[in-house]
Amino acid sequence: MNVRALLTVLRLPHLWARWQLLRDVEPFLRLQFLSFAWESGLLEALRSPASREDLFERLRVQRTDLLEVALDLGVALKELSRREGRYAIQGRRSRALLHDDGDPLAAMIQELLTYHGSVYQHLAERLRGAPLGAYLEKTGTMIARSSRVSEPFIASFVRAVVGADRPVRLLEIGCGSGIYLRYAAEANARVTGVAIDLQESVVEQALANLQSWGISDRFAVVVGDIRNPPADVSGPFDLITLHQNVYYFAPEERPDLFRRLRSWLAPHGTLALTSMMRGKTLAALDFDLALRSTVGCAALPELQELTGQLEGSGFSQVGATRLMPLEPLYGVTARS
Ligand SMILES: C[S@@+](CC[C@H](N)C(=O)[O-])C[C@H]1O[C@@H](n2cnc3c(N)ncnc32)[C@H](O)[C@@H]1O
Fold this sequence. Notes:
By secondary structure, this protein is of the alpha/beta class. It is 50% helix and 18% strand. It folds into three domains: 92 residues, Arc Repressor Mutant, subunit A (Orthogonal Bundle), CATH 1.10.10; 39 residues, no CATH class; 188 residues, Rossmann fold (3-Layer(aba) Sandwich). Helix 2 packs across helix 7, helix 7 packs antiparallel against helix 8 and helix 9 crosses helix 10. The mean pLDDT is 95. The site of S-adenosylmethionine has 23 residues, from helix 8 and strand 5.
């Protein structure tokens, strides 16, 4: 840099803030690159090192200049390396996405860039009354996948509530990918039951998953709204679970819903739900904004409000456990 250019830099107003903002661009570009690389099949194609020409062919590229610049971006971010004309995966994040359990992370990035991105784009106008976003219809399968980011924490809660060796008839509400049916089935060979989800595409995904996990004979999965359930959803159940979806029910309709669920439980049956609760962490605040901006969703619940609603609906022994360090993700259980 010549001296004049250096002096110009030094005289810039808000020099440190400018530097920080430029640094902030990097995580933004990294998320964009990772999302593109996952969605386009670039990461998959780089499971083993490949030349530009290999990649043009494998990804059926027509605009080669676009991929060339995107590859340069990947190298500049240190997500990719280039040696002797061959590209390879270098960054930890890219590697994690490619791993067997990387899909929830990829879906989380896609959710942030698309759904949450739109939430912030429209936030100013929505403050002044513009309509909320009808996001749920288009994002069902992506949300079902990204919800699995909390999986390790919710899985241990599920194991604890299903127990190890007793017959359990389970109703899972809003099953998404069906992953918690898998944990329940693995923890206790005597668990059977029924799962329901509002969205047909999500149920198709859950059915395919149960099939591939070898547990499709233990659970029926049906499309429907639990507020108006199909005939297959009939009690009594020993356990009713709601994972990460209590905010799809307006606070004022929860007492009614809880009372009905309680009436479907066998004596000494358990209702178990998991949810992020309202909190001041970045993740909780971002999620709360997304929910409040979405048609058909309610704000993140307050833990005490929720446990109070359960008690008010006739449940006893209502208890809550924090499932994740640092984030307000809780498991709540209540007895019929
Ligand atoms: C955020 S996802 C969570 C999926 C899954 N439980 C998990 O934790 O991975 C919430 C799911 O609840 C479903 N859902 C929301 N309201 C529902 C309702 N009234 N009846 C049935 N399913 C519902 C949605 O379609 C969605 O698949």
